[in-house]
Amino acid sequence: MFIRNCWYVAAWQEELTSQPLARTILAEPIVLYRTASGQVSALEDRCVHRSLPLSMGRVCGEHLVCAYHGLSYDHAGRCVHIPAQDVIPKNAQIRRYPVVEKDNVIWIWMGDSTRADETSVPDYPWHSDPGWAHKKSYRHIAAYYELIHDNLIDLSHVGWVHEKTIGGTPEAHSRAEVKVVRSEDQVSVRRWMRDSVPPPTYVKAVDFKGNIDRWMEIRFRPGLVSIYVGANEAGKGVDEDHYRNTFGARIFNGVTPETEHSTHYFWTAAHNFKVDQPAATEALFKEVYATFEEDKMVLESQHSRMRDLPGAPTIDLISDAGGNQARRLVKEKIEEELRHVPVPA
Amino acid sequence: MFIRNCWYVAAWQEELTSQPLARTILAEPIVLYRTASGQVSALEDRCVHRSLPLSMGRVCGEHLVCAYHGLSYDHAGRCVHIPAQDVIPKNAQIRRYPVVEKDNVIWIWMGDSTRADETSVPDYPWHSDPGWAHKKSYRHIAAYYELIHDNLIDLSHVGWVHEKTIGGTPEAHSRAEVKVVRSEDQVSVRRWMRDSVPPPTYVKAVDFKGNIDRWMEIRFRPGLVSIYVGANEAGKGVDEDHYRNTFGARIFNGVTPETEHSTHYFWTAAHNFKVDQPAATEALFKEVYATFEEDKMVLESQHSRMRDLPGAPTIDLISDAGGNQARRLVKEKIEEELRHVPVPA
Amino acid sequence: MFIRNCWYVAAWQEELTSQPLARTILAEPIVLYRTASGQVSALEDRCVHRSLPLSMGRVCGEHLVCAYHGLSYDHAGRCVHIPAQDVIPKNAQIRRYPVVEKDNVIWIWMGDSTRADETSVPDYPWHSDPGWAHKKSYRHIAAYYELIHDNLIDLSHVGWVHEKTIGGTPEAHSRAEVKVVRSEDQVSVRRWMRDSVPPPTYVKAVDFKGNIDRWMEIRFRPGLVSIYVGANEAGKGVDEDHYRNTFGARIFNGVTPETEHSTHYFWTAAHNFKVDQPAATEALFKEVYATFEEDKMVLESQHSRMRDLPGAPTIDLISDAGGNQARRLVKEKIEEELRHVPVPA
């Protein structure tokens, strides 16, 4: 169902304070918190004594203290203090999860902790690059996470679902030139739409007067779908050499399964134009927000109908190539884990 | 659980517009819509591509278009257009359901479509007969559909549940003369209450001064329970010859299972007195509406208790004769279908 | 799961009127009512005819009458009248439950009625003793009942959960001297905290100036946990001889399982100081109420987390001695019933 040996977005950096945060990830209840020294930790959200969620407790110095009988836990999930009891049972231990704080994101590793390689945490420099401005959001989506992958990877839906925002001409989206490349750990999809009508969002952003050449790069890795889109006046070219210095926006899409039926969706919208104008950041954010609300409605309805009619036959379209590659990658990783990975301690 | 080869009420005629309507019938999600030419269609409410409910889409001309990637479907449930893709897969097909528009009602056939005989759609001329005026309603009932049959067929409950409206004397209802006749496809129940106190609703309608002779005819067919009630001054007789030209009301009761635990209830109240006075129609409607709200509360509480205590022993009363005949008829039809009917395509 | 041969609190005395009361106990829906003669009865909440809850009906004289078709039941659960039908079927009978009205409490026996010994109903004289004043409450707790036992029996949580009300110093609670005594039918726990900081509630009640000696007596029987707490100025002693005439409060805790996942919690707070001052009763009540709201939040979160992670390993602390004895007692009683008790008629 889920890839475990993978870095997922657990939270935005600023969500982590001395007030513990409860979040379910891959169907496991987790408490996230930041201690007095600033260190971020993630533990099983359950006191080993009587199962109260530790997220109801409080941080004291470097420890997390249970709200029921005052048991204290360290970063490793070991119970290190029991009020009025000198001997701490050896099995007074809960699971801890590796976490990394990077690029304003808290990343968590849900699998075998001995394989948690911090150098494999995705880079996302556009959250701190001065050439880009961004704004964050979080949405809870009542849908299976792979439906979100499909949605982000196959942008042929843009003209239908988002005709009022980023759409443009439906058929132009459907007829876009597309190139899908699968490597071991990721799927990249590139799309080009030459000489097409600019969508409302783009016109608002940079005031295009005539038709445009559009390009979209989607990079899927389990846990993160990075999208880089942009446009130029029609005829000016959509090769990398041409578009690197023109109007562009980057969407960070942290896709973290909560349960089999729901997903945490962490996203940011960054742009490389008018970066010193908060109103421009806000305007882009609002457009993307509206777009994602449209997607949320589609995804949740789709998920709900699939639950109503499990196993109903479906067909694939040509435009599903990228999404299907992503599904294959996820399936392979899960199967590999089931073969090789020991049960986490 | 359900009879499939049967015409059920799917909707009121005026509910069907170019805006698709989602409705679950016999636990199957269905989309109902009217195309530009006025034709009504019913399809499986699921795009064959990625399972979005088609009811979120829109009608374009004679086609229904999915809101996610723009696939178009015709009346037969065939996908006839995929944007930017010339070849349509052969299995791009969803189920369609026969529908008939008649007497202001949209009837649907849920079983084997080769057996859907339009001449077997029930007649209900009183929705258009100028000698009668009527008003419509729809209620969602969180109860198993056969509980509604019981309720409509055994009117001995009227004195207890509806004492404030159509009741009259409880014991008079319980002691009514009753005649039950079962044929292959229906059960008819006739009741006569001679020289009884007129209930408040009747007095409001036609201002009876003294006691009355009442009669009630209930005709049960799977999907539709037709009720014809009326009264005359006491002593004037309750034979057909006498009552055809006196005060009468007809209740149309479309009983369409939604799921095992819920039912669509379509009803109209028609009357043959003061037919040119909308206030009389409204007054009767209000009385019947109040009555059915009382029934709804009973039915839902009953259903809920039966789910709490499945298999608890029960007893039958003499007055259950008609309801039990209806249950037997439903059981026979279901068993017959399980024996003979092929799985619908 | 539940002890059946045991008196549970079904309701407060004043809840029982001629208006029937519906309450689920040990997962069985029950109707409680008081007839014209003042007698209290408890029956299965289901008409034997068509399963409508009898709690929707009405009391007529000594009978309970179903709201659907008017069947009447006596105190023994026998159907004694069917409108318009002379013969009453022999199996027109529903289950009745022994009930006893005592000390303002309606007690119910859920097991084998031949073993319902009214002399074994718990005494609680402080609901009528003029030396004590009290106020009642009822709370619905979405938690397994044994979690409430644990909470009431092991008061080492008081310093953590209730620091703002009855807490005082957390470590003092954890280091309290504790004596646990198990007999066949009950577990008693006594705790003493000498020379400790008075908690806010106690200061409000009797204005202690310095440290206090506190004592707490908890007596657990299935269905009822009686708590007697009090305090004296530090050094004045906490032996029975000393404290009987000082500041004391008694908490009645009727713990009645509703389902496997919820519990009826009937409690009163009584006090032996300022018994003629309603404001004192109210002030104590408010403090205890606030305390129990804190417990409710803990209990429900704990229960919910245990459902999320069934079978997760736990540890016991020294302070669990009393609670664990109570769990053992409950387990023994249930096992004994499964061995010896015939299925109730």
TrEMBL record, chains A, B, C:
Name of the top EC class for this enzyme: oxidoreductase
Point out the coiled-coil segments of this chain. none
Domain Rieske per the UniProt entry, residue ranges = 7-108
User: Keywords assigned by UniProt?
Assistant: 2Fe-2S, Iron, Iron-sulfur, Metal-binding, Monooxygenase, Oxidoreductase
Out of the domains of life, which is the source?
Bacteria
Documented EC number(s): 1.14.14.-
Q: Residues of the signal sequence? A: none
Q: Please verify whether the record's keywords include Ribosomal protein.
A: no
InterPro entries recorded: Cholesterol_7-desaturase, Rieske_2Fe-2S, Rieske_2Fe-2S_sf, VanA_C_cat
Q: Does the keyword Cell cycle apply?
A: no
Q: What is this protein called?
A: Toluene-4-sulfonate monooxygenase system iron-sulfur subunit TsaM1
Origin species: Paraburkholderia nemoris
